[in-house]
Amino acid sequence: MSVADKIFRLLSENSSPKESDWINSKIAADIEKLPSAFVAAPRFISKNPVDVSVLFEDSKIRTWALDKLARGFLLLKIDNASKDKYTSVIESLFETAEVNEAVALYSALPFLPYPEYWKFKATEAVRSNIGPVFDALAFGNPYPAVHFSDLEWNQLVLKCIFNDKPIHLIEGLDKRTNRELADSISNFAHERWAAGRTVPAQVWRLVIKFTDEKITNDLQKLFLSGDISDNYAAALVCHECSFEKAKELLNLYPDLSAKVQKGELTWEVLEV
Amino acid sequence: MCQNNHTSSNPSHFEGSQEEKVLAQSIELNFMDYIKDMKFFDPHIHMTSRTTDDYQALADAGVKAIIEPAFWLGQPRTGLSTFKDYYNSLIGWERFRSSQFGIKHYCTIGLNSREANNEALAEQVMEILPLYVYKEGVVGVGEIGFDDQTAAEEKYYRLQLELSKEANLPVQVHTPHRDKKKGTLLSMSIALEHGIDPGMVIIDHNNEETVESVLEQGFWAAFTIYPFTKMGNERMVEIVRKYGSERIMVNSAADWGISDPLAVPKTAALMKIKGISEEDIIKVTYQNAIDAFAQSGQITQQDFEIVQEIDQSQKFNGNTILRGGQQPRIDKNAIIIR
After folding, report:
1. ipTM of model
2. Which of A64, A167, B162, B327 has the most CB atoms in a 10 Å sphere around its CB?
3. Which one of 3.20.20.140, 3.90.226.10, 3.40.50.720, 3.40.50.300 gives the CATH number of domain B37-310?
């Protein structure tokens, strides 16, 4: 079943008869009018939450408002035979989008034809200062993990951390770790520590594969922190990495070591 | 919008006792005491030109929701793109900025009268307006109307009245500073000529000279409490005493000029002190504006009345931080900045 079909089924299951009529009338009408239907959708479709997990490959729970789902559907119904024409129609929707429209566009990005074409737009969401717009691209959205370069990816993750947003909601977080990012995390922590501030403990999951001498020093500092979350993060990194010196460091903290061994301590505990 | 900040103050229409006068003048120090637990709606305020301090002050004073009309930014725009970016900011960035302070932000979209005089540009702006008037949270076409009362202004006022009719949206009409009475009467007669229900039209920046004809003909009468050039709030109290609270609303029109974003709550406080009934105060500082602009179908009173931890549709996996969070407060008097 295509994504459009899956969305259509979700819409049918969750719409009132009046809402269904509106959606059906829009797909039956002139295809050129779909962009204006995209704009008008909230006037006719409620914002009731719908579980849209079936649209995604992983099993994470995702909830969209019904009007956002309808908007996603309309985007997929726009004629995409010509790349130039299709992309220019979508571009113009982006250009005049209010907040909820921008959110719908970014949420639908993984399903749009010509996915590579939208990369610059996607990086623009990372630059956005409008919370919901950034969130729509950053969280529960498979697009960045699939299409972003390391540089673009790291920018997304670091901006999240900088703005105190929850990185565990980024799709593919553990798969897309890289040396550059690990170094940036360490440097960022040093900056914050120098300013008398802290970093969220779960960011250290990004350094596991790249644990070295320098990062082991950071872990040492985390073990000595008065914040139990920092201690947990240090124990988890030491346990999961393959850097011998770090593994030995964990032996100095038998209580934490036991907790990790028994599986009582996981990154989920630190996901806030 | 104010263009000439005359330094002379409003002619005093204050008719209270000497004692009342002193009280009214000292009210700024403690006006909040009079309006505790009251909520306000400012249907005309240009937050684009204001600071975050103002947003905090509005939230503290009980302003729950605002309308930001599209207006003149203080200097003429040179191209279509800047209009577009401005409209985008009204439905995008400013809306988000406001939400961070817990204030619901609506806007009206239109080509302002002053820039209607640049006809070549005005033509292009008219072409993009339909892209904006159907957006969520756009509660009217505005602010439009007359400034110098030129032929071009009239042309684009008429075209935008037609647009409002087509989109079934209320109209927020700016009335001119010079030759106000004539401009106001003309604005109303043109609206009627276009077959627009006066109940869908909010005539703004009224004064003692214009209010009667506006109310008589069934239009909404908005009053802008703006120092020096428009209404003072003592005069406003007398207006409500005389005309009651039907179809009357108060706004601040705070912008880049010397203006007061707290004009609505301050006026409510003054009304309370001067014995206006609570029911009338609620109408002119809250409910009437909501009723007038809710005719757009874009205002859900519950959105700003029931304080919700989070908009359910924006919730991911039960995580509430995603809203962007409320802005943290800083102590303005502290010398230490952390």
Report:
1. 0.85
2. A64
3. 3.20.20.140
